[in-house]
Write a structure and sequence with these properties.
The complex is a heterodimer of chains A (264) and B (309). Chain A is built from ten helices and eleven strands. By secondary structure, chain A is of the alpha/beta class. In chain B, a hairpin with a 5-residue loop joins strand 1 and strand 2 (78-80). Classes of the chains: A alpha/beta (264), B mainly alpha (309). Chain B: InterPro entries: MetI-like (IPR000515), MetI-like_sf (IPR035906), Phosphate_PstC (IPR011864), Phosphate_Transport_Permease (IPR051124).
Chain lengths: 264, 309
């Protein structure tokens, strides 16, 4: 395996409005050090993809951003969202997750109806007005490009949907809460190419009103949909730049090798 | 080529091993089925003799409340009314299950969702130990602690449904708890994550997602606990009072199907009505445990269908 110098880093400055940023984030699983000094700024209303080999820490890093690593790993450092360090112990994690939603690798709808899946979080937050619920149900399913396919079966079990539909349902379920930021952990890796392209179209539409951070194994996907890309290697962020720069003229040798497939 | 052809058609050591292994499995299963069939036949033939040979009407057996199998009433009919025991058995079972279920599910949620690893590791053997304590010990503790306690508070003898319920409560608690723990553990991790990622609190996640997903398993746990309570003889017999009377309240002495069987079976002669009547009680017990099993099966199947869809 080739070895690379982790001190060789290229992190480009972002001159846009920042939605969320991390400052020297460190993650430990017990004694093993999983993420080293991760400092990134994510621009608002843009899609940023995190790429890297398996075990490079990109999913771990993503999960820090809405505190899903609580009780699983030790996360140190600052995560700034609206000028607040949301990694602090005093922060209300439930409130964090209401503003920073997450969609997982495997579609994971609840064994409830489509409607109840979407309305789960809203009802938890005490929204009981029927008109409001109906409106949110419709808009979130439309935003996730699922409305036309399910509008007549809203009371059917969500588990009866295909994998791609289930994943779009999970996206709809997340955006029903109107979060600021949407985190996606390899959302298309369990899906066929047609479902994948539908998810990608959905994400591009959503990026008009949401900040999207997506972990992906698929480099074509990263280059197709994302505006910015960060390359992770063994827990270090090697390069972070606009996607077109990373894929055409990478600054660091490790990035170039990974993108061209001459890696490891 | 010829060699391979013949070997393809001949049996070998490996194929004979297959046959041998299959034969062992089938004979073991056959023996178990035979045993079950024999027990069913024996209890049924003995239990039904009350109605076929001794001329007791089945309906009277279920609905009358006088239990004096040796005597006849003024019309010359034998007095074999099992209603008081059936009522008492159901009362203690249902009350114990009602009392134990909230505690058991609470403990199970604590062990699987709330306690840290050390706490769960400590509680697991405690629960398992409770399952393993012999029922006579429970009965003895009930007799020397619960009965005087109830006598002190409510008066009377202290024997009765309430004492029986309390003893059974402690006995079925670990059964329901450990089965509930298994069912909660089998709820997929991703349900929990999905709920948390949507901003649901821990309580909302437990209440609306985990408990709901585990509901068929929890119901099964409760029914297994009820089956245990229904079939428990010794511990109940020690605290229930053993009087075949229609229970008037929770502290009047009563008798369950099982406690009647254990106290009386030695005092009757095979082939006579008093003995046959006890077999009829056993038949009722057997039928009830079959029913409990069927309910568990039914719930299991419905739960599976729900998960697949």
């Amino acid at each position: 395996m080739k070895t690379y110098d982790f001190n060789q880093q290229y992190i480009s400055k972002i001159d846009k409005e920042i939605a969320i940023s991390t400052d020297n984030v460190q993650v430990h699983y017990g004694k093993s050090h999983a993420i080293f000094d991760a400092s990134l700024d994510f621009p608002r209303f843009q899609i940023t993809s995190l790429i890297g080999a398996s075990g490079s820490g990109k999913s771990t890093y993503l999960r820090c951003l809405n505190r899903m690593n609580d009780k699983i790993a030790q996360v140190d450092g600052k995560i700034l969202y609206r000028n607040t360090d949301i990694n602090s112990k005093k922060i209300n994690v439930y409130e964090v997750r209401r503003h920073i939603g997450m969609v997982f690798q495997r579609p994971n709808p609840f064994a409830k109806s489509i409607k109840d899946n979407i309305l789960f979080a809203l009802r938890n937050n005490g929204i009981n007005d029927k008109n409001e619920l109906q409106k949110r149900l419709e808009t979130s399913l439309k935003d996730a490009a699922l409305w036309d396919e399910v509008k007549d079966d809203l009371d059917k079990s969500a588990l009866a949907l295909s994998g791609g539909q289930q994943q779009r349902l999970c996206i709809a379920r997340s955006i029903a809460m109107h979060p600021d930021i949407l985190l996606l952990d390899e959302p298309a890796s369990a899906l066929d190419p047609i479902s994948t392209s539908k998810i990608e179209e959905t994400l591009e539409l959503l990026s008009k009103s949401y900040t999207i951070i997506i972990v992906t194994h698929n480099m074509q996907q990263a280059s197709r949909i994302s505006d910015y890309t960060a390359f992770f290697h063994m827990g270090h962020i090697i390069e972070y730049n606009e996607t077109k720069n990373i894929f055409t003229a990478p600054e660091i040798k490790a990035t170039e090798d990974y993108i061209s497939g001459d890696f490891g | 080529m010829d060699d391979i052809q013949t070997r393809l058609q001949k049996s070998s050591r490996a194929t004979r091993q297959d046959y041998f292994g299959k034969a062992i499995c089938y004979s073991c299963i056959g023996l178990i089925i035979l045993l079950v069939a024999c027990i069913l036949y024996f209890i049924a033939s003995k239990g039904l003799a009350t109605f076929t040979q001794n001329g007791v009407k089945f309906w009277n057996f279920l609905t009358q409340s006088d239990w004096k199998p040796g005597d006849v009433d003024k019309y010359g009919n034998p007095q074999v009314g099992a209603l008081p025991m059936i009522v008492t058995s159901f009362s203690v079972t249902i009350l114990a299950a009602l009392l134990a279920t909230p505690f058991a599910i609470g403990a199970a949620v604590f062990m699987t969702e709330i306690a840290n690893k050390k706490g769960a590791k400590f509680l697991q053997p405690v629960i398992e130990l409770l399952v393993g304590i012999p029922s006579v010990v429970y009965g003895f503790i009930g007799l020397s602690l619960i009965v005087p306690f109830i006598r002190g508070i409510f008066g009377g003898t202290g024997f009765g449904i309430l004492s029986g319920t309390l003893v059974l409560f402690v006995m079925v608690l670990p059964t329901i708890t450990s089965l509930s723990v298994d069912s909660l553990k089998s709820v997929p991790m991703h349900y929990c994550q999905a709920s948390l990622a949507l901003g649901a609190t821990r309580w909302q996640t437990i209440y609306k997602v985990i408990l709901k997903a585990a509901a068929p398993g929890l119901l099964t746990a409760v029914i297994f606990g009820m089956a245990r309570a229904f079939g428990e003889a010794l511990a109940v017999q020690m605290v229930i009072g053993n009087a075949v009377l229609m229970p008037k309240n929770l502290i009047s002495p009563a008798s369950t199907l099982t406690s009647k069987l254990t106290t009386e079976i030695g005092n009757t002669v095979m082939g006579t009505l008093p003995n046959n009547a006890l077999w009829s009680l056993a038949l009722v017990l057997l039928f009830m445990s079959l029913l409990f099993n069927l309910v568990v099966r039914f719930i299991g199947r419905r739960g599976n269908i729900k998960n697949e869809r």
